[in-house]
Amino acid sequence: MFRNLVLQGNLLDTKNLSQRIVFVFWYIFCLVVCVVYSAKLTAVLAIPVYEKPIDSLEDLPNAVRNGFTPSVIGDTINEYMFKDAVDGIMKQTWRLFNHKDRSKSFVDSTSTGMRLVLQEKSVHIGPCTAKIIAVEMGEYKFHVGRGLFYPKPVGFVYPQGAPYLRPFNKVIRRLVAAGIVNKWYDVEIRKIPRKHNEENEVSSSSAISLTHLQAAFFLMFIGYLAAAMALLAERAHWALFRNERVSEK
Question: Are residue 173 and residue 67 in the same domain, yes or no?
C-alpha cells in the first residue's frame, strides 16, 4: 500500500469484493494526495515571495524587529518632529531609531539615507525629494511607501509680522486643495531621466520560470533514460535466459 502512495506500480490480486472497494478508495486517496502535493510544490516554485513592504510609520515596528533601521536627516525638522512628539506614532517611531550609533539613523542628507538603503537593511524617512532622488538613482531599486506623515504638504518662511502672511496662506491653501502642488511635483519627476534595469537582474523574490528549472528537467530525462536502459537490459537478459533454457531442453 505504501508503493501506491508514492505512485509506484503494484499488483494486488484479490478476489474479495470488500478488499477491492478499500483498494479503490485507497488509490483515489493516493492520487489526490500526490496531485495536491505536486500542485503545492509548483505554486511554491512559481509564485514569487515578496517581503512585506513598509508603507507607513505603523509598519516600522515590525520592520525593526526584522532587522531594519529607520533613518532621517539629523538636526533638521525631520528629526525634531519625532523627537519633540509627546505621544502617538511619532513618539513610538522616535524610540525605534538607533540612538547608540547616530550615524545609522541620523544622516546628513537624503542622498546619504538613500544610499544607506542600498547598502544595508535601512528604511529612510524623508520628504518628497526622496522620491526624486530614488528616480535619479534608479527607481527599480527602491520601494517608495504610500503613507504620508508630514503635517503640511508645502510651506514657506516669512519675516515675523509680515502683512502678506494671511493672503499668502490663503493662496497656498487653494493651490494645495486644487492639487496644483502635486501636479508641479509630478511634472518635475517626469523631467528626470529614469534609469532602467538594463542588466535584467533577477532578485531573490522573482518568480521561478522554466529557465530556472532546466536542471530539474535534465535530471528527470536522465532518470527516464536510465530506467529505459535498465528495462531493455532486463528484457535482453530474460530473452537470453529463456533461449538457454530452451536449448537445454
Answer: yes
